[in-house]
């Protein structure tokens, strides 16, 4: 007899030559409503009415996102009442493992997006008893890691074409919900919530700077590349500068705000490679220039410098609010 728990804990095996781990990750996480539902689930919310009460979301959108997350193994539906029918949605090992991604998003938006600090949950490290910010470190050498410290190269399953989600990604219209877009992860979704935007950001982290290089690598229409570059400059994650040797060339470089998004990228990549396994091998290989090892990122507490584990983190809705249930899992 097959143990259903083992099946639930197992990664998804991808087809050879198909969408790789990056594409699957973007297809799941590149949607603001999905991130918000997962945020609620990781802090203990499990029932439909609770999600509706906590989020500015319509019934149709919530139903669709819960179904999608259940199909992807991110939530597990349990019927707790039959007349009338009532179900709750429990987090799974796959969704618990997202805690570094969510912490990284919260920390980036708190630091870099105006007026977000008061809206985002406070992260408390139960081990040392302090509120904290997560620090990304290299597991091999223990040093903190920034975008400048890391080299990236395509792995066996890595190409731009295979890194695009299989389903079309789009911006939601007002018809997607009673209140239109949620607007609760605004800058993150500008980067993450559109396949071309996320691909362009990935290209910037890999060192591309020229318009023609972005267009060639992504295989995207020039007008679309121009639109994304303009949006990223307006957001402040890229800045346009003239080439010192060619005044007719404009180059696009990551800003401090753009480079600070790197922990979100790394945490998302690590989650995707663990849970979506291509037979050829990983989509992207990161190496830590400082020690020469393949980068396996760990997240530590900036107060005590001890490694973080999801079960040691408490999440509070605000500095004044009470503790919500812990939503993480051991690493």
The dominant shape is globular
Rg, Å, rounded: 20 Å
Largest sheet geometry: 3 strands, antiparallel
The tally of structural domains comes to 1
Question: Spans of 5+ residues with little confidence (pLDDT < 50)?
Answer: 1-6, 168-180, 319-331
Distance between the termini: 28 Å
Secondary-structure class: alpha+beta
Q: Into which percentage range does the β-strand content fall?
A: 15-25%
Number of strands: 13
Q: Looking across the biggest beta sheet, what order are the strands in?
A: 5-4-13
Number of helical elements: 13
The helical percent reads 25-40%
| Average pLDDT figure | 85
Topology order in helix (H) and strand (E) letters: HEHHHHEEHHEEEEHHHHEEHHEEEE
InterPro entries: HTH_HxlR, WH-like_DNA-bd_sf, WH_DNA-bd_sf
Organism: Mumia flava
GO molecular function: DNA binding
Protein name: DNA-binding HxlR family transcriptional regulator
Word description of this protein:
There is one protein chain. The protein is an alpha+beta fold. Helices cover 37% and strands 18% of the residues. The protein has 13 helices and 13 strands. Strands 5-4-13 form a three-stranded antiparallel β-sheet, with no helix packed on it. It has a two-stranded parallel ribbon with strand order 1-10. Strands 2-3 form a two-stranded antiparallel sheet. Helix 2 crosses helix 13 (262-275), helix 7 runs antiparallel to helix 13 (262-275) and helix 10 (211-218) crosses helix 11. The longest helix has 14 residues, at 99-112.
């Amino acid at each position: 007899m097959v143990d259903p728990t083992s099946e639930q804990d197992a990664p998804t095996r991808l087809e050879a030559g198909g969408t790789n781990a990056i594409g699957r990750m973007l297809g799941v996480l590149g949607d603001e409503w999905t991130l918000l539902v997962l945020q609620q689930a990781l802090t203990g919310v499990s029932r439909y009415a609770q999600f509706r009460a906590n989020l500015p979301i319509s019934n149709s959108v919530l139903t669709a996102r819960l179904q999608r997350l259940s199909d992807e193994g991110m939530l597990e539906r349990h019927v707790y009442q039959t007349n009338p029918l009532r179900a709750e949605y429990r987090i799974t090992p796959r969704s618990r493992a997202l805690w570094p991604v969510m912490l990284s998003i919260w920390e980036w938006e708190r630091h870099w997006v105006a007026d977000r600090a008061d809206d985002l949950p406070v992260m408390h490290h139960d081990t040392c008893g302090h509120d904290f910010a997560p620090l990304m470190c290299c597991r091999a050498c223990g040093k903190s890691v920034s975008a400048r410290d890391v080299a990236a190269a395509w792995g066996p399953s890595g190409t731009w074409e295979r890194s695009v989600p299989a389903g079309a990604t789009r911006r939601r219209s007002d018809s997607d919900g009673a209140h239109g877009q949620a607007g609760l992860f605004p800058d993150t979704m500008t980067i993450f919530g559109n396949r071309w935007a996320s691909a362009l950001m990935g290209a910037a982290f890999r060192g591309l700077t020229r318009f023609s290089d972005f267009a060639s690598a992504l295989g995207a229409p020039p007008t679309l590349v121009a639109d994304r570059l303009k949006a990223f400059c307006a957001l402040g994650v890229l800045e346009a500068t003239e080439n010192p040797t060619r005044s007719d060339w404009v180059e696009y470089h990551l800003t401090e705000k753009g480079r600070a998004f790197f922990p979100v990228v790394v945490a998302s990549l690590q989650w995707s490679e663990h849970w979506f396994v291509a037979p050829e091998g990983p989509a992207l290989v990161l190496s830590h220039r400082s020690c020469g090892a393949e980068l396996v990122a760990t997240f530590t507490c900036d107060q005590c410098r001890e490694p973080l584990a999801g079960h040691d983190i408490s999440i509070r809705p605000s500095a004044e609010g009470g503790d919500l249930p812990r939503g993480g899992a051991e690493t």
